[in-house]
Design brief:
Elements (H helix, E strand, L loop, with lengths): L1 E4 L18 H6 L5 E4 L1 H4 L9 E4 L3 H5 L4 E4 L6 H18 L3 E4 L10 E3 L7 E3 L3 H8 L3 E4 L4
Parallel strand pairs: 1-2, 1-5, 5-8
Antiparallel strand pairs: 3-4, 6-7
C-alpha cells in the first residue's frame, strides 16, 4: 500500500476545491497496487476550498524547524495546520507500515524537490513541502506525480 495525495485521484480537496490535479498515471496505479488517499492540509484542519498558501523564505524542513512560516494569499499564517497535517499523515503511515508516498508536485505540503517560492507567482525553488520533509525524516520514500 502507498499513500497518495488525494487531489491526484480527483478527490476535491485541493486549495481551489476542484479536480484540477487529477492524474491519469496515479489513477492507473490503482490497477496494480493499493493507494490510500490523504490530504495533509485537510488533516491539519484547513477547509476546502481555501486561499492558496506558500512557504515563505524556506522549505518544509525550515517550517518543521521553526525557521519560516506558511502564509496564505489572504495574509493568514497557516503554519500550524500544515505541521498538524504532516504529523497526522506520518502517524497513519507508521500505523499501517507504509513506506512510500506519491505527493502533488510543488505543493507546500506534498512537493518533493521543488516548491513554490512564496511569492504566489509560480516561481519554483529547491525544497520539499512540510509533509514530504517529515516523511523523509522518517525514511518514507517520496515521489511526485511527475515521476510516475
Amino acid at each position: 500500500m502507498k499513500l497518495v495525495s488525494a487531489c491526484l485521484l480527483g478527490i476535491k480537496c485541493a486549495w481551489s476545491g476542484d479536480q484540477r490535479y487529477k492524474n491519469q498515471a496515479a489513477l492507473r496505479l490503482l490497477e496494480v497496487t493499493s493507494l490510500l488517499p490523504i490530504c495533509p492540509e485537510q488533516q491539519g484542519g484547513l477547509t476546502t476550498p481555501r486561499a492558496a498558501q506558500e512557504i515563505q523564505g524556506g522549505s518544509g524542513e525550515d517550517v518543521l524547524d521553526g525557521r519560516c512560516r506558511i502564509i496564505n494569499r489572504d495574509g493568514e499564517d497557516v503554519t500550524l495546520a500544515f505541521i498538524r497535517g504532516a504529523e497526522a499523515v506520518l502517524s497513519l503511515a507508521k500505523q499501517l507500515e507504509i513506506k512510500e508516498f506519491i505527493g502533488k508536485a510543488h505543493s507546500p505540503s506534498c512537493g518533493c524537490g521543488l516548491i513554490y517560492d512564496g511569492s504566489f507567482t509560480h516561481q519554483l525553488v529547491p525544497g520539499d513541502g512540510v509533509t514530504t520533509a517529515l516523511l523523509k525524516r522518517n525514511d518514507i520514500r517520496v515521489i511526485t506525480e511527475e515521476e510516475l
